[in-house]
User: Fold these one by one.
Assistant:
Number 1:
Amino acid sequence: MRILIKNGTVVSATGRGAADVLVDGETIVAVLEPGSARLGFDLEGSVDTVIDAAGKYVIPGGIDAHTHMELPFGGTAASDTFESGTRAAAWGGTTTIIDFAVQRTGERVQDGLAAWHEKAAGNCAIDYGFHQIIGGVDENALAAMDGLIDEGVTSFKLFMAYPGVFYSDDAQILRAMQKSADTGLLTMMHAENGLAIDVLAEQLVARGKTDPYFHGIARAWQMEEEATHRAIMLAHLTGAPLYVVHVSAKQAVEQLAWARDRGQNVFGETCPQYLYLSLEEQLGASSENWGRFEGAKWVCSTPLRSRAEGHQDSMWQALRTNDLQMVSTDHCPFCMKDQKELGLGDFRKIPNGIGSIEHRMDLMYQGVVTGELTLERWVELTSTTPARMFGLYGTKGVIQPGADADLVVYDPNGHTSIGIEKTHHMNMDYSAWEGFEIDGHVDTVLSRGKVVVDGNQYLGAKGDGRYLKRGLSQYLV
Ligand code: DUC
Ligand code: ZN
Ligand code: ZN
C-alpha cells in the first residue's frame, strides 16, 4: 500500500515546512517538495491513497512513554486493557506506548516481564515497548537486570514511595543505580518520600481529614523535592543516568535544573494533569452524585499541586527551557464505581491514577494555542524526545525516509470537545478532563503505514501493534 500525504505542513522538533510525505508499506520513503509534477511522472497516480492535508500539520505519531495498562494497584487494577488503552491512544494521535512491566519483592524479573508480554501480545492497536518496574531489589533482581537490554527493555523504574508495595530504600536504590551505571540501563524514579508521606497521611486520617483533597496535603511538595534531591545525589555518586517521572513540584524542577547545570545525565517528565489541574480545583470538586468525594477522580501520585504556589506555571516554563524534557501521561485509569470508591471515607484507599492517554496530544497542542509552547516544541516533547530518551529514535519520533510511517494529520482549525460522551474511548466511567475544549483536532492517524483513524472512523484492529525492542537512550550528554 502506497500513501501520499500532500499539501500539509510537516512539523519536526526543529522546524516546519510545506512538504508531501510518501509512504510505502510500513515505512516513510520520501519527504518531497510539494507538488509531484517536477518529478516528471504522476506521483499521485502511482499511489493507492492520497490524503489531502492542506491547512493541516503532519507530525510524527505521539509516543507516550509512561502508561500502566492493566496494572494491579491499590486493591484493584487499572481499567484499560492493552486493547482498550491502545485504541484510545490511537484515537488521540499516539502511535507508540511504553508500558511498565512489574516485578515485586520475591518475584523473578523475567516472570514479571513475561507476564506483561502475555497481557499485551496480540492485543495492541499500536506499537508498544516496556520499561521494567523493579519493586523488590535483591540479588536475584540485580542479576536479572543484566538480561533486560537483550530483551529490548533498556530502562527500569524504582519507587521511593509506596512502602510495602513497590518501595526501595536507599541501599536498594544505590545497588540498582550501580547496575544502571554499569549497563547503561536508564534509571527511572518515582521521587516522593513514601515513609514520611505515610505518617502524614495517617495523622490526617486520625484527625478526620479523609476527603480526597488530603491526598495532596499528605504528599507535600517537600516530599517530592527531598526525594528528587536524594535520587540525584545517588545518581551522581554511582554515575547512573536518571529520569524522574511525573514531576509536579516546582522545587523538584529546581533540583533537576541544578543537577543538569552540573552536567549530570538527569532528566524529567511532567504530565498534562500537572500543567492544567490543581489542588484548589480538587478541593472545590463536588457534585450531587459524589458529594465531597468527586476530587477522587484527580487522585494520582505525585499529586495535583497548588496553583497559588505556582507549580503549574513552573512546569510550563520548564518545558520551554528544557529543564523538563518530555510530557507523558502516567495513564493509570480507574473507574469511579467500584474502584475510586474504595477510598470513600479514607483517601489512602483511593487507587492512585488518572487516565489521559487519548488526550495528551490535544492537551499539549492547546499549549501551542495559548502560547506556552512552539509548534516544534510540541512535537519534540510528545514524540521526538520520547523516542530519543528511550532508544527508538530514527524508527520513531521523526518524519524521514526509513522511519516507520507513524504519522498524524492534525487540523489546527478543527475542534475537540473532551468528555465521557464526546471524544472519550478510554475504559473509564468518567473523564478527568470533562469539559476541556481544544482548538485543534486529530484528523488522520497512520500506524506503520496503516490508516487507523480517519476522521470519526476507527480502522485499526487489535493485534496491529508490535513489540518494540528498544536500544539504549540516545539522549545522554
Ligand atoms: N502514580 C499513579 O498515580 N498511579 C500509578 C502509579 C503512580 O506512581
Ligand atoms: Zn510513579
Ligand atoms: Zn506511573
Note: The pocket of dihydropyrimidine-2,4(1H,3H)-dione (ligand 1) is lined by residues 68, 73, 190, 300-301, 330, 332, 352-353 (CB under 6 Å).
Number 2:
Amino acid sequence: MTDIGAVIAIDGPAGSGKSTISRMVAERVGLPMLDTGAMYRAVTCAVLRSGGDVGDPDVAAAAAEGAVIVVDDVVTIDGADVTTEIRGPEVSANVSIVAAHPGVRTHLRAMQREWMARHGGGVLEGRDIGTVVLPDAPLKIYLTASPEVRAKRRAGDVQGDFDLAAAAANIAERDRIDSTREDSPLRPADDAVIVDTSDLTIDEVVERIVSEARSRGLAREASGKELL
Ligand code: DC
C-alpha cells in the first residue's frame, strides 16, 4: 500500500449520516473535509441551469469540464453561489443520472485527488472514495442505515410539508442507480469498516470513527502536526 497521508474515506448511501458525521470527524481529528457529493450536485446544477439534457453524457461532461466549480462552506459555479440550489428537489432528482456519466466521474475524480494532494490528507466523503478515488486510504468507513431510517432523516432536513413515502422512493431510486452504474458503483471497499448507523447516535458514530483514526495515527491534533 502506498503511503498517501492522513486520509479518511467515508462512503455510503444517501441518508446514512455521511455529511454530518464527516464534518464532525474532520473537526475532531484536525483534517480538512471534502464533500464530493456537492461536486456532483454542482455539475447537475450547471447542466440544469444551461437547459441541457442531464441524460446526455457529452452535455454533462462538458458542464463538468467547462464550469469552474468550488466546493467549500459555500458552493459556487463560475462564481455564482449555488449552495442552497444544489440541495433542492430538482438537483436531488437528477444528480444520480449525471453522476453515472463516466466523463463526469473522470473529471471530478481528478479534482478530488488534486484536492487531497494539495491538502496532504483529509476526510473525503462520497460513494467511491475508498474503492476508486483513493483506494490506498489508510482508513475507509462505509456508513449505512436502513431505508426507513434514512428517509426519516431526510424529513428532518426539510422545513414544512414532507412526503415520507416520496422521500423513501427517491432514496431507493438513487440507491439503485448509484449501486448499479458501470463506473465506480456504490459498494463498500473490501477493507472498509462498516458502520450501521440505524440505532446509533451521531456522537456514537463519530466516536467510533475518531477512535479508528487515532489507532491508525491519522489525527493531526493527536500527532502534534499543525492544523491546515
Ligand atoms: O451525498 P449526496 O447525496 O450529496 O450525493 C449526491 C449524488 O452524487 C449521489 O446520488 C451519488 C453521487 N455521488 C457519486 O456518485 N460519487 C461520489 N463520490 C459522491 C456522490
Note: Residues 222-228 have pLDDT under 50 and may be disordered.
